[in-house]
Design a protein that fits this description.
two-stranded antiparallel ribbon, mainly beta, 20 strands, Porin, single chain, 6 helices, 16-stranded antiparallel beta barrel
Protein backbone atom coordinates (compact mmCIF):
# COMPACT_ATOMS: atom_id res chain seq x y z
CA UNK A 1 0.00 0.00 0.00
CA UNK A 2 1.31 3.45 -0.87
CA UNK A 3 1.71 6.01 1.88
CA UNK A 4 0.41 9.54 1.39
CA UNK A 5 1.09 12.89 2.99
CA UNK A 6 -0.84 16.15 2.99
CA UNK A 7 0.49 19.69 3.13
CA UNK A 8 -0.72 23.09 2.10
CA UNK A 9 0.27 23.70 -1.51
CA UNK A 10 2.48 26.72 -2.17
CA UNK A 11 0.46 27.28 -5.33
CA UNK A 12 -2.74 27.31 -3.34
CA UNK A 13 -1.36 29.64 -0.68
CA UNK A 14 -0.43 32.18 -3.35
CA UNK A 15 -4.11 32.42 -4.13
CA UNK A 16 -4.87 33.86 -0.68
CA UNK A 17 -3.42 37.13 -1.95
CA UNK A 18 -6.14 37.32 -4.57
CA UNK A 19 -9.47 39.03 -3.94
CA UNK A 20 -11.80 37.46 -1.38
CA UNK A 21 -14.03 35.47 -1.35
CA UNK A 22 -13.67 32.98 -4.18
CA UNK A 23 -9.89 33.03 -4.50
CA UNK A 24 -8.96 33.21 -0.84
CA UNK A 25 -10.80 29.97 -0.15
CA UNK A 26 -8.38 28.08 -2.38
CA UNK A 27 -5.62 28.44 0.18
CA UNK A 28 -7.52 26.19 2.60
CA UNK A 29 -7.49 23.17 0.29
CA UNK A 30 -4.77 20.68 1.31
CA UNK A 31 -2.43 19.25 -1.27
CA UNK A 32 -2.31 15.45 -0.96
CA UNK A 33 0.20 13.34 -2.82
CA UNK A 34 1.14 9.69 -2.83
CA UNK A 35 4.73 8.57 -2.92
CA UNK A 36 4.79 8.59 -6.74
CA UNK A 37 4.57 11.63 -8.97
CA UNK A 38 1.62 10.40 -11.02
CA UNK A 39 -0.87 9.92 -8.17
CA UNK A 40 -1.59 13.45 -6.94
CA UNK A 41 -5.02 13.69 -5.39
CA UNK A 42 -5.35 17.46 -5.77
CA UNK A 43 -4.32 19.98 -8.42
CA UNK A 44 -4.15 23.73 -7.85
CA UNK A 45 -3.14 26.36 -10.38
CA UNK A 46 -3.59 30.07 -10.81
CA UNK A 47 -3.18 32.44 -13.75
CA UNK A 48 -3.39 36.18 -14.20
CA UNK A 49 -3.35 38.13 -17.46
CA UNK A 50 -3.41 41.82 -18.29
CA UNK A 51 -3.82 42.82 -21.95
CA UNK A 52 -3.66 46.49 -23.06
CA UNK A 53 -4.31 47.47 -26.67
CA UNK A 54 -4.27 50.75 -28.58
CA UNK A 55 -5.17 51.89 -32.08
CA UNK A 56 -4.34 55.33 -33.52
CA UNK A 57 -6.83 57.29 -35.63
CA UNK A 58 -7.75 55.85 -39.00
CA UNK A 59 -9.65 56.95 -42.08
CA UNK A 60 -13.46 56.66 -41.83
CA UNK A 61 -15.62 58.83 -44.13
CA UNK A 62 -18.75 57.65 -42.28
CA UNK A 63 -19.64 55.83 -39.08
CA UNK A 64 -22.60 53.60 -38.24
CA UNK A 65 -24.20 52.26 -35.05
CA UNK A 66 -21.75 49.35 -34.80
CA UNK A 67 -18.59 50.97 -36.13
CA UNK A 68 -15.37 51.00 -34.14
CA UNK A 69 -14.29 54.49 -33.04
CA UNK A 70 -12.18 56.11 -35.77
CA UNK A 71 -10.26 58.33 -33.36
CA UNK A 72 -7.40 57.13 -31.15
CA UNK A 73 -8.64 54.63 -28.57
CA UNK A 74 -7.41 52.00 -26.15
CA UNK A 75 -8.85 48.98 -24.41
CA UNK A 76 -7.80 46.52 -21.72
CA UNK A 77 -8.72 43.25 -20.05
CA UNK A 78 -7.60 41.79 -16.73
CA UNK A 79 -8.32 38.29 -15.47
CA UNK A 80 -7.29 36.13 -12.51
CA UNK A 81 -8.32 32.49 -12.42
CA UNK A 82 -8.07 29.78 -9.77
CA UNK A 83 -8.22 26.23 -11.14
CA UNK A 84 -8.76 23.36 -8.69
CA UNK A 85 -8.94 19.66 -9.41
CA UNK A 86 -9.47 16.50 -7.35
CA UNK A 87 -9.31 12.81 -8.20
CA UNK A 88 -12.44 11.31 -6.60
CA UNK A 89 -11.72 7.79 -7.92
CA UNK A 90 -9.46 5.93 -10.35
CA UNK A 91 -9.15 7.77 -13.66
CA UNK A 92 -11.78 10.28 -12.56
CA UNK A 93 -11.04 14.02 -12.43
CA UNK A 94 -13.26 16.79 -11.08
CA UNK A 95 -12.38 20.43 -11.78
CA UNK A 96 -13.68 23.76 -10.52
CA UNK A 97 -12.49 27.13 -11.89
CA UNK A 98 -13.29 30.52 -10.40
CA UNK A 99 -12.43 33.72 -12.22
CA UNK A 100 -12.36 37.45 -11.63
CA UNK A 101 -12.41 39.66 -14.75
CA UNK A 102 -12.69 43.28 -15.75
CA UNK A 103 -12.06 45.26 -18.91
CA UNK A 104 -13.40 47.60 -21.54
CA UNK A 105 -13.36 47.09 -25.32
CA UNK A 106 -12.58 49.64 -28.00
CA UNK A 107 -15.43 52.14 -28.47
CA UNK A 108 -16.86 51.10 -25.09
CA UNK A 109 -18.72 48.27 -26.81
CA UNK A 110 -17.78 45.07 -28.61
CA UNK A 111 -18.27 46.27 -32.19
CA UNK A 112 -16.43 46.98 -35.41
CA UNK A 113 -14.67 43.73 -36.34
CA UNK A 114 -15.50 40.36 -37.77
CA UNK A 115 -12.66 38.89 -35.71
CA UNK A 116 -11.74 40.78 -32.54
CA UNK A 117 -8.24 41.59 -31.35
CA UNK A 118 -8.31 40.30 -27.76
CA UNK A 119 -9.31 36.76 -26.84
CA UNK A 120 -10.47 37.66 -23.34
CA UNK A 121 -12.74 40.58 -24.16
CA UNK A 122 -15.97 38.53 -24.17
CA UNK A 123 -15.52 37.73 -20.47
CA UNK A 124 -14.84 41.31 -19.40
CA UNK A 125 -18.05 43.06 -18.47
CA UNK A 126 -16.89 46.49 -17.31
CA UNK A 127 -14.29 48.38 -15.32
CA UNK A 128 -15.44 46.92 -12.00
CA UNK A 129 -14.14 43.43 -11.14
CA UNK A 130 -16.72 40.68 -11.60
CA UNK A 131 -16.41 37.18 -10.13
CA UNK A 132 -18.04 34.09 -11.60
CA UNK A 133 -17.74 30.33 -11.85
CA UNK A 134 -15.85 29.61 -15.05
CA UNK A 135 -15.85 25.80 -15.14
CA UNK A 136 -17.32 22.91 -13.14
CA UNK A 137 -16.90 19.55 -14.82
CA UNK A 138 -16.11 15.86 -14.44
CA UNK A 139 -13.72 13.97 -16.72
CA UNK A 140 -13.60 10.17 -16.72
CA UNK A 141 -11.03 8.15 -18.67
CA UNK A 142 -11.23 4.47 -19.60
CA UNK A 143 -7.78 3.21 -20.62
CA UNK A 144 -7.57 0.47 -23.26
CA UNK A 145 -3.85 -0.17 -23.70
CA UNK A 146 -1.79 0.42 -26.83
CA UNK A 147 1.11 1.97 -24.95
CA UNK A 148 1.08 5.11 -22.84
CA UNK A 149 1.76 8.84 -23.10
CA UNK A 150 2.82 11.17 -20.33
CA UNK A 151 0.83 14.34 -19.64
CA UNK A 152 2.16 17.21 -17.55
CA UNK A 153 0.65 18.83 -14.50
CA UNK A 154 -1.17 21.84 -15.96
CA UNK A 155 -4.33 23.83 -15.43
CA UNK A 156 -7.28 21.40 -15.50
CA UNK A 157 -4.96 18.46 -16.14
CA UNK A 158 -3.24 16.05 -13.75
CA UNK A 159 0.30 14.81 -14.16
CA UNK A 160 0.48 11.15 -15.11
CA UNK A 161 0.19 8.56 -17.85
CA UNK A 162 -2.72 7.85 -20.18
CA UNK A 163 -3.14 5.01 -22.63
CA UNK A 164 -2.85 5.79 -26.32
CA UNK A 165 -6.07 3.84 -26.81
CA UNK A 166 -8.70 5.26 -24.48
CA UNK A 167 -12.22 6.63 -24.14
CA UNK A 168 -12.80 9.94 -22.35
CA UNK A 169 -16.08 11.49 -21.22
CA UNK A 170 -16.29 15.12 -20.10
CA UNK A 171 -19.57 16.38 -18.63
CA UNK A 172 -20.56 19.62 -16.90
CA UNK A 173 -19.85 23.33 -17.33
CA UNK A 174 -16.86 24.08 -19.57
CA UNK A 175 -15.93 25.57 -22.96
CA UNK A 176 -16.39 23.68 -26.21
CA UNK A 177 -12.89 24.87 -27.14
CA UNK A 178 -11.46 23.06 -24.09
CA UNK A 179 -11.80 19.79 -26.02
CA UNK A 180 -12.35 20.56 -29.70
CA UNK A 181 -9.99 22.19 -32.19
CA UNK A 182 -6.64 21.78 -30.40
CA UNK A 183 -3.53 23.13 -32.12
CA UNK A 184 -0.01 23.23 -30.73
CA UNK A 185 0.92 26.51 -32.40
CA UNK A 186 -2.26 28.60 -32.34
CA UNK A 187 -4.74 27.96 -29.55
CA UNK A 188 -4.26 29.95 -26.33
CA UNK A 189 -4.98 33.73 -26.40
CA UNK A 190 -3.26 34.05 -23.02
CA UNK A 191 0.15 32.92 -24.30
CA UNK A 192 0.02 32.80 -28.11
CA UNK A 193 -1.89 34.80 -30.74
CA UNK A 194 -4.51 37.25 -29.43
CA UNK A 195 -6.90 37.57 -32.37
CA UNK A 196 -10.01 35.39 -32.28
CA UNK A 197 -9.31 34.04 -35.75
CA UNK A 198 -5.98 32.59 -34.64
CA UNK A 199 -7.03 30.53 -31.61
CA UNK A 200 -9.98 28.83 -33.30
CA UNK A 201 -11.97 29.00 -36.52
CA UNK A 202 -13.42 32.50 -36.78
CA UNK A 203 -16.36 31.03 -38.72
CA UNK A 204 -17.17 28.40 -36.06
CA UNK A 205 -20.29 29.75 -34.34
CA UNK A 206 -19.91 27.30 -31.46
CA UNK A 207 -22.63 27.16 -28.82
CA UNK A 208 -21.75 29.07 -25.65
CA UNK A 209 -22.97 31.81 -23.37
CA UNK A 210 -21.69 35.37 -23.80
CA UNK A 211 -18.48 34.51 -21.89
CA UNK A 212 -17.73 31.49 -24.07
CA UNK A 213 -18.84 28.64 -21.76
CA UNK A 214 -21.77 26.25 -21.62
CA UNK A 215 -23.14 23.01 -20.18
CA UNK A 216 -23.00 19.70 -21.95
CA UNK A 217 -20.88 16.66 -22.68
CA UNK A 218 -18.07 15.55 -24.98
CA UNK A 219 -17.04 11.96 -25.72
CA UNK A 220 -13.56 11.26 -27.09
CA UNK A 221 -12.26 7.98 -28.53
CA UNK A 222 -8.52 7.61 -29.15
CA UNK A 223 -7.25 4.65 -31.19
CA UNK A 224 -3.59 4.59 -32.27
CA UNK A 225 -3.12 7.60 -34.61
CA UNK A 226 -6.82 8.46 -34.73
CA UNK A 227 -9.16 10.42 -32.48
CA UNK A 228 -12.91 10.99 -32.68
CA UNK A 229 -14.74 13.64 -30.65
CA UNK A 230 -18.51 14.12 -30.32
CA UNK A 231 -20.25 16.72 -28.19
CA UNK A 232 -23.44 18.64 -27.49
CA UNK A 233 -23.40 21.97 -25.64
CA UNK A 234 -25.91 24.54 -24.48
CA UNK A 235 -26.18 27.88 -26.24
CA UNK A 236 -27.72 31.12 -25.00
CA UNK A 237 -31.47 31.62 -24.59
CA UNK A 238 -31.11 34.58 -26.94
CA UNK A 239 -28.21 34.90 -29.38
CA UNK A 240 -25.05 36.46 -27.92
CA UNK A 241 -26.45 36.88 -24.41
CA UNK A 242 -25.46 35.29 -21.10
CA UNK A 243 -28.30 33.04 -19.79
CA UNK A 244 -28.00 29.41 -20.91
CA UNK A 245 -30.76 27.55 -22.72
CA UNK A 246 -30.95 24.15 -21.00
CA UNK A 247 -33.51 22.69 -23.42
CA UNK A 248 -30.81 20.48 -24.93
CA UNK A 249 -33.40 18.35 -26.74
CA UNK A 250 -34.55 21.41 -28.73
CA UNK A 251 -31.76 24.00 -28.78
CA UNK A 252 -28.10 23.05 -28.85
CA UNK A 253 -24.74 23.11 -30.53
CA UNK A 254 -23.45 19.77 -31.84
CA UNK A 255 -19.94 19.16 -33.12
CA UNK A 256 -17.95 16.19 -34.39
CA UNK A 257 -14.21 16.17 -35.02
CA UNK A 258 -11.93 13.53 -36.56
CA UNK A 259 -8.19 13.79 -35.98
CA UNK A 260 -5.28 11.89 -37.53
CA UNK A 261 -1.66 12.11 -36.40
CA UNK A 262 1.05 11.55 -39.00
CA UNK A 263 4.78 11.75 -39.67
CA UNK A 264 5.90 13.90 -42.61
CA UNK A 265 9.62 14.11 -43.44
CA UNK A 266 10.35 12.63 -40.02
CA UNK A 267 8.33 15.40 -38.36
CA UNK A 268 5.05 15.01 -36.47
CA UNK A 269 1.82 16.65 -37.54
CA UNK A 270 -1.95 16.36 -37.22
CA UNK A 271 -4.94 16.97 -39.44
CA UNK A 272 -8.41 17.56 -38.00
CA UNK A 273 -11.78 17.93 -39.67
CA UNK A 274 -14.60 19.47 -37.63
CA UNK A 275 -18.28 19.88 -38.48
CA UNK A 276 -20.84 21.72 -36.36
CA UNK A 277 -24.62 22.09 -36.27
CA UNK A 278 -26.48 24.68 -34.18
CA UNK A 279 -30.22 24.66 -33.64
CA UNK A 280 -31.93 27.54 -31.84
CA UNK A 281 -34.42 30.34 -32.24
CA UNK A 282 -32.51 32.62 -34.58
CA UNK A 283 -33.24 35.17 -37.30
CA UNK A 284 -32.43 34.58 -40.94
CA UNK A 285 -30.80 37.42 -42.86
CA UNK A 286 -33.27 37.08 -45.72
CA UNK A 287 -36.21 37.56 -43.32
CA UNK A 288 -34.45 40.51 -41.69
CA UNK A 289 -33.78 42.08 -45.12
CA UNK A 290 -37.45 41.74 -46.04
CA UNK A 291 -38.36 43.41 -42.74
CA UNK A 292 -36.00 46.30 -43.48
CA UNK A 293 -37.45 46.80 -46.95
CA UNK A 294 -40.97 46.83 -45.48
CA UNK A 295 -40.09 49.41 -42.83
CA UNK A 296 -38.32 52.13 -44.80
CA UNK A 297 -39.57 54.89 -42.52
CA UNK A 298 -37.59 53.60 -39.52
CA UNK A 299 -34.81 51.85 -41.41
CA UNK A 300 -32.25 54.64 -41.03
CA UNK A 301 -32.98 55.25 -37.34
CA UNK A 302 -32.04 51.78 -36.16
CA UNK A 303 -29.58 51.84 -33.25
CA UNK A 304 -29.17 48.10 -32.93
CA UNK A 305 -30.08 44.82 -34.65
CA UNK A 306 -33.82 45.62 -34.52
CA UNK A 307 -34.55 43.83 -37.80
CA UNK A 308 -33.07 40.63 -36.39
CA UNK A 309 -35.14 40.96 -33.21
CA UNK A 310 -38.28 41.48 -35.25
CA UNK A 311 -37.97 38.25 -37.23
CA UNK A 312 -36.42 35.99 -34.58
CA UNK A 313 -39.39 33.71 -33.99
CA UNK A 314 -38.70 30.14 -35.15
CA UNK A 315 -36.01 27.47 -34.81
CA UNK A 316 -33.27 27.66 -37.40
CA UNK A 317 -30.33 25.42 -38.23
CA UNK A 318 -26.75 26.52 -38.81
CA UNK A 319 -23.91 24.42 -40.24
CA UNK A 320 -20.21 24.61 -40.90
CA UNK A 321 -17.21 22.42 -41.69
CA UNK A 322 -13.52 23.15 -41.25
CA UNK A 323 -10.01 21.71 -41.41
CA UNK A 324 -7.23 22.29 -38.88
CA UNK A 325 -3.59 21.42 -39.69
CA UNK A 326 -0.49 21.55 -37.53
CA UNK A 327 2.94 20.48 -38.77
CA UNK A 328 6.34 20.48 -37.11
CA UNK A 329 8.94 21.91 -39.51
CA UNK A 330 11.95 21.33 -37.27
CA UNK A 331 12.68 21.27 -33.55
CA UNK A 332 11.92 24.99 -33.20
CA UNK A 333 9.40 25.92 -35.93
CA UNK A 334 5.81 24.82 -36.42
CA UNK A 335 3.17 25.63 -39.04
CA UNK A 336 -0.61 25.86 -38.64
CA UNK A 337 -3.63 26.37 -40.87
CA UNK A 338 -7.36 26.60 -40.20
CA UNK A 339 -10.12 27.01 -42.78
CA UNK A 340 -13.88 26.81 -42.35
CA UNK A 341 -16.98 27.36 -44.47
CA UNK A 342 -20.38 27.98 -42.83
CA UNK A 343 -23.81 28.26 -44.44
CA UNK A 344 -24.24 31.94 -43.44
CA UNK A 345 -28.05 32.08 -43.64
CA UNK A 346 -28.71 32.97 -39.99
CA UNK A 347 -27.53 35.56 -37.50
CA UNK A 348 -24.57 35.03 -35.19
CA UNK A 349 -25.54 32.62 -32.42
CA UNK A 350 -22.66 32.97 -29.96
CA UNK A 351 -19.32 33.87 -31.57
CA UNK A 352 -18.28 36.05 -34.51
CA UNK A 353 -19.67 37.87 -37.53
CA UNK A 354 -17.74 35.58 -39.88
CA UNK A 355 -19.15 33.06 -42.36
CA UNK A 356 -15.98 31.74 -44.03
CA UNK A 357 -12.53 32.00 -42.47
CA UNK A 358 -8.90 31.20 -43.17
CA UNK A 359 -5.88 31.61 -40.88
CA UNK A 360 -2.33 30.38 -41.32
CA UNK A 361 1.04 31.08 -39.81
CA UNK A 362 4.13 29.84 -38.00
CA UNK A 363 5.35 29.75 -34.42
CA UNK A 364 9.06 29.83 -33.56
CA UNK A 365 10.73 28.87 -30.29
CA UNK A 366 13.38 31.17 -28.85
CA UNK A 367 15.85 28.27 -28.60
CA UNK A 368 17.13 29.41 -31.99
CA UNK A 369 18.69 32.49 -30.38
CA UNK A 370 19.36 31.04 -26.91
CA UNK A 371 16.17 32.46 -25.36
CA UNK A 372 14.45 29.21 -24.40
CA UNK A 373 11.39 30.82 -22.79
CA UNK A 374 10.76 33.23 -25.69
CA UNK A 375 8.61 32.60 -28.75
CA UNK A 376 7.55 34.38 -31.92
CA UNK A 377 4.40 33.99 -33.99
CA UNK A 378 3.24 35.48 -37.28
CA UNK A 379 -0.09 34.81 -38.96
CA UNK A 380 -2.41 35.94 -41.75
CA UNK A 381 -6.21 35.77 -41.54
CA UNK A 382 -8.98 36.29 -44.05
CA UNK A 383 -12.65 36.52 -43.08
CA UNK A 384 -15.63 36.51 -45.46
CA UNK A 385 -19.38 37.15 -45.30
CA UNK A 386 -22.12 35.07 -46.88
CA UNK A 387 -24.23 36.64 -49.60
CA UNK A 388 -27.22 36.71 -47.23
CA UNK A 389 -25.39 38.63 -44.49
CA UNK A 390 -23.73 40.91 -47.01
CA UNK A 391 -27.04 41.95 -48.64
CA UNK A 392 -28.51 42.67 -45.20
CA UNK A 393 -25.61 44.98 -44.32
CA UNK A 394 -25.64 46.67 -47.73
CA UNK A 395 -29.30 47.55 -47.12
CA UNK A 396 -28.33 49.39 -43.93
CA UNK A 397 -28.94 46.54 -41.46
CA UNK A 398 -26.98 46.12 -38.26
CA UNK A 399 -26.01 42.87 -36.65
CA UNK A 400 -24.67 42.41 -33.12
CA UNK A 401 -21.06 43.36 -33.75
CA UNK A 402 -20.93 45.02 -37.17
CA UNK A 403 -22.96 47.57 -39.08
CA UNK A 404 -21.52 50.78 -40.55
CA UNK A 405 -24.85 51.88 -42.02
CA UNK A 406 -23.57 50.91 -45.46
CA UNK A 407 -20.76 48.75 -46.73
CA UNK A 408 -18.23 48.69 -49.56
CA UNK A 409 -17.66 44.96 -49.21
CA UNK A 410 -14.21 43.44 -49.12
CA UNK A 411 -12.95 40.45 -47.12
CA UNK A 412 -11.57 41.40 -43.72
CA UNK A 413 -7.80 40.75 -43.87
CA UNK A 414 -5.62 40.65 -40.75
CA UNK A 415 -1.91 40.25 -40.03
CA UNK A 416 -0.79 39.44 -36.51
CA UNK A 417 2.71 39.14 -35.11
CA UNK A 418 3.88 38.73 -31.52
CA UNK A 419 7.09 38.26 -29.56
CA UNK A 420 6.64 36.57 -26.18
CA UNK A 421 9.46 37.39 -23.75
CA UNK A 422 10.08 34.98 -20.89
CA UNK A 423 10.55 37.11 -17.76
CA UNK A 424 10.68 34.28 -15.23
CA UNK A 425 9.42 30.71 -14.96
CA UNK A 426 5.72 30.97 -15.66
CA UNK A 427 5.77 34.68 -16.58
CA UNK A 428 5.79 36.37 -19.99
CA UNK A 429 5.51 39.86 -21.48
CA UNK A 430 4.24 39.91 -25.06
CA UNK A 431 4.26 42.85 -27.48
CA UNK A 432 1.75 42.23 -30.29
CA UNK A 433 0.86 44.02 -33.52
CA UNK A 434 -2.23 43.55 -35.69
CA UNK A 435 -2.90 45.18 -39.05
CA UNK A 436 -6.58 45.05 -40.02
CA UNK A 437 -7.57 45.83 -43.60
CA UNK A 438 -11.27 46.39 -44.35
CA UNK A 439 -12.49 46.25 -40.73
CA UNK A 440 -16.01 44.81 -40.57
CA UNK A 441 -15.63 44.02 -44.30
CA UNK A 442 -15.79 47.69 -45.29
CA UNK A 443 -13.14 48.98 -47.70
CA UNK A 444 -14.27 52.57 -46.99
CA UNK A 445 -12.88 52.39 -43.44
CA UNK A 446 -9.40 51.71 -42.15
CA UNK A 447 -6.90 50.17 -42.24
CA UNK A 448 -6.46 49.91 -38.49
CA UNK A 449 -3.15 49.39 -36.66
CA UNK A 450 -3.51 47.75 -33.22
CA UNK A 451 -0.57 47.70 -30.80
CA UNK A 452 -0.73 45.56 -27.66
CA UNK A 453 1.18 44.52 -24.56
CA UNK A 454 0.15 41.45 -22.59
CA UNK A 455 1.48 40.25 -19.25
CA UNK A 456 0.68 36.67 -18.31
CA UNK A 457 1.76 34.63 -15.31
CA UNK A 458 0.78 31.10 -14.29
CA UNK A 459 1.74 28.90 -11.35
Amino acid sequence: MRSTFCAFSVKALILTRLPFPIFALVGFFPFCQADTLDTKALSAHVQTTFNWQYHPAFSAPYTGPNSITSGPDNMYTFSATAMLGVRPWTNGEFFYNAEMVEGEPFSGNLVGFGSFTNGEITRAGGTSPAEYRQRLFLRQTWNNGGGSDHVDDEANQFDGFIDKNRFVLTIGNFATLDVFDPNTYAKDPLTQFMNWGNWTYAAWDYAADARGYGWGFVAEWYLNDWALRLGRMTGPKQPNLLPDDFALDKHYGDQIEIEHAHILNARSGKVRVLAYHDRAIMASFNDALNWLNSNQAIKYHITGPDALYAVRNTEKDKYGIGVNVEQEINDNIGYFLRAMVADGHTETYAFTEVDDSLSTGIAIKGNLWQRNEDSVGVALMQNYLSNDRRRFLEAGGNSYFIGDGQINYRPESIFEGYYSIGLFKGGWLTPDYQYILNPAYNADRGPIHVFAFRFHAEF
